[in-house]
Amino acid sequence: MNDFADQKVVVTGAASGIGRAQAQAFVQAGASVLAIDQQPFTLTGAQVLVADVTQPETADLVTAFAPDILCNTAGVLDGYATAEQTDLETWQRVLEIDLTSQFRMIKAVLPRMLDQHHGVFVNMASIAGLVGGGGGIAYTAAKHAVIGMTKQLDLDYAGIGIRANAIAPGAIETPMNAADFAGDRHMAQWVAEQTPAKRWAKPEEVAALTLFLASPAADYIHGTVIPIDGGWLAK
């Protein structure tokens, strides 16, 4: 499961958090990794691309890299904003980053995967893609759509050796959630108390699940969404 020596992997949102942990895990497993983020960063052992995943030229560069595995991890939160609080510009921005950028990347790499009759997509969803309350209206809508897109993608191409699955993280301690740990850490403590496992997860735990889903050991896992949420959805 941990040998990716002959595999090329693209990870978006790789400057920090889950994306960075995923990229590092694939590097350690021997893969050739293209790590993408719009923020300048370094990542030992990976080819780094500072680029905006919402732009067509970024998709073109991903096409040229010709990955076997694509991890669509880049994303943005919306501050739990309600419909009343969300203007159209914010709605479009969140969906462009959290949903449409994933579609752009899929379109960029799919032709090669079709040619070689093999490929793996690991799309980042969220528990907000399965229930309400995990984000605001734009984020929740985008993550529900990611799950639907993933299922249809797999259904369309499973018969020719392409797999697509989604991961639905719950409380993961990343820079994206830094606001929850600010000040007296009240929000972070409340989330931990409300989570059956009574803690936040580390990004490396999501990365480990990613490597499993990308490996031959998961070859019969198709079109599913796997929560990694400390039992949040079991309540």
Fold topology:
Layout: E1 8-12, H1 17-28, E2 32-37, E3 47-50, H2 56-65, E4 69-72, H3 88-116, E5 119-124, H4 137-157, E6 162-169, H5 186-194, H6 203-214, E7 225-228
Parallel strand pairs: 1-2, 1-4, 2-3, 4-5, 5-6, 6-7
Summarize the structure in words.
Belongs to the short-chain dehydrogenases/reductases (SDR) family. Keywords: Oxidoreductase. This is 3-ketoacyl-(Acyl-carrier-protein) reductase. With 235 residues, the chain is α/β, with parallel strands linked by helices. The protein has a single domain (8-173, 180-228), classed as NAD(P)-binding Rossmann-like Domain (Rossmann fold), CATH 3.40.50. Helices cover 40% and strands 16% of the residues. The protein has helices at 17-28, 56-65, 88-116, 137-157, 186-194, 203-214; strands at residues 8-12, 32-37, 47-50, 69-72, 119-124, 162-169, 225-228. A seven-stranded parallel β-sheet has the order 3-2-1-4-5-6-7, sandwiched between helices. The radius of gyration is 17 Å and the shape is globular. The two termini are 31 Å apart. The model has no long low-confidence stretch (mean pLDDT 96).
Task: Label the structural class.
Answer: alpha/beta
Order of helices and strands: EHEEHEHEHEHHE
How many helical elements? 6
- Which segments are poorly predicted (pLDDT under 50) over 5 or more consecutive residues? none
How many domain units?
1
Proportion of helical residues:
25-40%
Mean pLDDT: 96
Radius of gyration: 17 Å
CATH architecture: 3-Layer(aba) Sandwich
Oligomer: single chain
CATH fold-level label: Rossmann fold
- The amount of beta strand, in percent, is 15-25%
CATH class: Alpha Beta
The gross shape turns out to be: globular
Q: What is the number of beta strands?
A: 7
